[in-house]
């Protein structure tokens, strides 16, 4: 599964490649798995991409007001950008004015897309909103093990299994510690470790 640092790089590279380019054709290749209609998707056609950004574990393609396409790659989703034919296992393809097509593929068909999704409730792991006070408040409300807490995408967005282990190791916290029992001093260490580990991989 692509983790936050991978998605951060994807968003930067996709913005460099596609910023300012108009979307010519949007095509759904698997109607059973893509939950939006092609008519809604095609409303993005003709619009120019402003940027690609990441929130939590999703990529957002910003085509302007009320024209946001989100992608969650899930476990095996991949993005393929080429001039060649549509790749195997494609769920969705976006053809841009330069003649190249960005395809979302997933042999398990678990990746998903949304148009204009509702704002997420979680604080992104790299957001400036994730302060010591905010982290302390979230921790005090949870009786989960700290590793489970870190991976809960409804609380903090973007931290997966491997990075949760690395963050806890860097902070000197056992993964089986209970969230609301973490001492205040270690909360500061945990916040610092989240930034250091994730930014060190972007």
Short description:
With 202 residues, the protein is α+β, with helices and mostly antiparallel strands. 30% of the residues lie in helices and 23% in strands.
Describe the secondary structure blueprint for this structure:
Elements: H1 4-18, E1 23-28, H2 38-41, E2 51-55, E3 58-62, E4 68-72, E5 78-82, E6 90-96, E7 101-105, E8 112-115, E9 123-124, H3 132-140, H4 146-151, E10 156-157, H5 161-171, H6 184-199
Give the helix level as a range of percent.
25-40%
Q: If helices are DSSP runs of H or I spanning 4 or more residues, what is the number of helices?
A: 6
By secondary-structure content and strand pairing, the structural class works out as alpha+beta
Mean pLDDT: 94
Overview of the structural elements:
With 202 residues, this protein is α+β, with helices and mostly antiparallel strands. Helix content is 30%, strand content 23%. It is built from 6 helices and 10 strands; from the N terminus they run αβαββββββββααβαα. The strands form 3 sheets. Strands 1-6-7-5 form a 4-stranded antiparallel sheet, with no helix packed on it. Helix 5 (161-171) packs across helix 6 (184-199). The longest helix has 16 residues, at 184-199. The chain is elongated, with a radius of gyration of 19 Å. The model has no long low-confidence stretch (mean pLDDT 94).
